[in-house]
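#struct-help
A.M.: can someone run this one for me? Single chain, 195 residues.
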Amino acid sequence: MAPPQTSQILADLVAKAPDGPVDLEWLLGNLDKRSFGLLLLLLGLLVIIPGIATIATLALLFPAVEMMLGRRAPSFPRVISKRQFDFKRFKRFTIAVSPMLQAIERISRPRWDARHDVIDRLVGLVVFLLAFSAGWPLPLVNVIPGMVVVLIAVAYLQEDGLLLAVAMAAALLCLLGLGFTLWASVSAVTEWMAH
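D.P.: on it. Structure tokens below:
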């Protein structure tokens, strides 16, 4: 049986949200058994949104590490799980990206060949590196890693191995691009200090 559509799960979650701010504990309490995939999707979207990106980037590190360790469900330290954020901004953003998610879903279908535990650990490692790269204090450096995390999460939720391979390639390009930017920045600073 095909997994439920990611955009529909996201719409259902947004519909259940209270009017005021919410915290990660509320999100975890409303996720189903596929909570790692959904959590990566939600945090990937939050990483893109200005004003929420910093806490979301930090929060993204925890499920990534737990996936690498082979854990079955995500958890957070209380100081992060109780940190509230403006869900209205997130709701507006999810409505804006919903057509993009639906377009991906139309061309996506379950194509899952590898063992799930291997995929979990690989996804965890790549998401950890993307979250780490999104935390660098450079303008808009969070946007592309956040978008790649969203793509990885959709592929993971849809159990689409081909889409996951595309997402992993995008992640590699993203990480190489950031590495080159940092190398060029360090080289420029070193050269400036040498004069």
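A.M.: thanks! The beta strands are 22-23, 84-85.
D.P.: also worth noting: DSSP finds nine helices and two strands in the chain.
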